[in-house]
């Protein structure tokens, strides 16, 4: 069985790039992280609101694997949980390899369905110059590779804390690869 754990949880009530670490966050079904600027049934990311504020919010929860931070350290960047705007920092789970529709049981009761890949923008370079090219690149075939985590929607609410386990429920086959959302 695929599994991992929660390293950190973060939220911010305003639209800033980084989010403050918390001792716990509460996920609300159909909405996202209580007290976070991206909470809502419809899109909350400013660029998405400008395009069409009525679209469903497929980016209620942002998860990043802590293993990315080690990779970025090798490139000269010191990144900590919450720095890249994620709500849940994970460990031991290859988030980017999961298929669309994977469900993550996080902690004792929360359930998050993975909707797609985070598509980082130039704001990441404002946070740390040159960082964008380390989280978005191309593979040997020329295909775009996005490494800045996954997005999801809250199916079942619950409280999530650092140290909580994460278990994976794969969707029925055939599995669809993650696309940017």
Automatic annotation (TrEMBL):
Residue intervals passing through the bilayer: none
Q: Which organism is it from?
A: Actinacidiphila reveromycinica
Mind listing the GO molecular function terms for this protein? Answer: catalytic activity; molybdenum ion binding; pyridoxal phosphate binding
Record-given protein name: MOSC domain-containing protein
Superkingdom classification of source: Bacteria
Q: Which residues form the MOSC domain?
A: 20-169
- In Pfam terms, one family for this protein is MOSC
**Which PROSITE patterns does the record match to this protein?**
MOSC (PS51340)
């Amino acid at each position: 069985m695929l599994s991992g754990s929660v390293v950190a949880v973060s939220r911010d009530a305003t639209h800033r790039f980084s989010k403050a670490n918390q001792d716990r966050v509460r996920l609300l079904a159909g909405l996202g992280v209580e007290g976070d600027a991206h909470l809502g049934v419809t899109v909350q990311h400013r660029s998405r609101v400008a395009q069409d504020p009525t679209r469903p919010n497929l980016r209620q929860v942002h998860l990043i694997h802590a293993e990315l931070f080690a990779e970025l350290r090798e490139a000269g960047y010191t990144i900590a949980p919450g720095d890249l705007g994620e709500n849940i920092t994970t460990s031991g789970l290859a988030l980017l390899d999961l298929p669309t529709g994977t469900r993550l049981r996080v902690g004792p009761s929360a359930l998050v369905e993975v909707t797609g890949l985070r598509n980082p923008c130039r704001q990441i370079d404002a946070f740390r110059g040159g960082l964008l090219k380390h989280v978005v690149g191309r593979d040997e075939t020329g295909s775009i590779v996005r490494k800045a985590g996954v997005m999801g929607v809250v199916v079942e609410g619950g409280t999530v804390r650092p140290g909580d386990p994460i278990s994976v429920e794969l969707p029925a086959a055939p599995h669809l690869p993650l696309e940017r959302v």
